[in-house]
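Re: the 79-residue chain
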Amino acid sequence: MKDVKVLGMGCANCKRTAQLIESVANEAGVTIALSKVEDLPEIMRWGVLSTPGVVVDGKLVHAGGVPSRELIQGWLTST
């Protein structure tokens, strides 16, 4: 199971990113624990200045803009 966090204040891009991650995970048959982090101090602790940010298994993998399906698939299928 992958632990995935979407960091952002609830903007349209943050919501779209979370939906896209869920969709790609379902298509790939990957089980994820998806959470949304909207607390600004917590987002800043990750060093994210441009949202949405994405953290997979404790590692910041993306910040700023909606990631592509291909990027997400890579994060979810890597070991």
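The chain has one domain: 2-77.
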